[in-house]
Amino acid sequence: MARRLDHEAMIRRGVDRHEARRYADALAEFDRALVQVPGCPLAEYNKANSLYMLGRDAEAESLLRWLVTATDADLRTACPVARPRSLRLDAAYLLFLALV
Hints:
- This protein is mainly alpha-helical.
- The chain has a single domain, classed as Alpha Horseshoe (Serine Threonine Protein Phosphatase 5, Tetratricopeptide repeat).
- It is built from six helices and no strands.
- The longest helix has 18 residues.
- It is globular and about 30 Å long.
């Protein structure tokens, strides 16, 4: 249980840093969260968003393509609180931005 709380706290800190335009700091938080819960789609999406904001579109693209093509089961297995349809839609929009 503590591992999950730490993981969620890392994602929250990363989102806070992203919103403060501290993208490199946000990226570090999402990477730490992914060490604890590999493949977490929430951490992957947020990492891709920070990568995109840092101009690292190619790196963001590979993460986003996985999120867009993953099944609901894949996304829920990696993170039971993930909302697959919403996450997939957000990832598709960000992928569009990264490719334009």
